[in-house]
Design a protein that fits this description.
single chain; mainly alpha; Recoverin, domain 1; two-stranded antiparallel sheet; two-stranded antiparallel ribbon; 63% helix; globular; EF_hand_dom; Calcium-binding protein
């Protein structure tokens, strides 16, 4: 398998949703990862942020199925997801809009509790600790992503980071451990 930064990053992203770590994701994995993440972020059962996050995971699952398809058991393999996410013919804009952004946007809404439209280091670390990303790696990522050096991430910086995570040709950007290391 291709060990390019793009493939490694796609694998890391896949791994965040493979709840039972069997090398496949299915609808139940996506439901469970949404619930688990909402719990770890401390989103209360009746909160709009929790509902938004769970809806985003359901929406992304439907979009992944439409784009990639499933095997006879309703699953997508890690290898198939990586092949899809790294395909030279991939419509990158559609991929980001349909698969990456719904969850990213829901997470942003859940984390920006003060409504200031930016994430500080503490908010950012809270997010990645919910994904079990090491604090040192998350701090490193925050510093690299804070492109204007103001000590906060704007939504545009966060969106650019997610795009770069999957598609940048700059090794400094694809090496940012935004979802940990695969």
């Amino acid at each position: 398998m291709d060990l390019s930064p793009h493939a490694l990053n796609a694998g890391s992203a896949f791994d965040t949703s493979d709840v039972d770590q069997d090398g496949y994701i299915d609808k139940e994995d996506m439901r469970l990862v949404g619930l688990h993440l909402a719990d770890r972020l401390g989103l209360h059962a009746d909160s709009p942020a929790r509902a938004g996050l769970l809806a985003a995971y359901a929406h992304v699952w439907a979009n992944i199925v439409a784009a990639v398809g499933t095997d006879d058991n309703g699953r997508i393999s890690r290898q198939r997801y990586i092949e899809y996410a790294t395909s030279p013919t991939l419509d990158r804009t559609h991929f980001i809009v349909a698969i990456v952004w719904p969850i990213t946007d829901a997470l942003w809404d859940a984390l920006d509790t003060d409504g200031d439209h930016k994430l500080g280091m503490r908010e950012y670390l809270h997010l990645w600790s919910a994904y079990d990303v090491e604090t040192a790696e998350a701090r490193e990522a925050f510093i690299l992503l804070d492109t204007d050096g103001d000590g906060h991430l704007g939504k545009d910086e966060f969106a650019q980071a997610m795009y770069d995570f999957y598609f940048s040709e700059d090794p400094r950007k694809t090496a940012i451990p935004i979802l940990g290391r695969s």
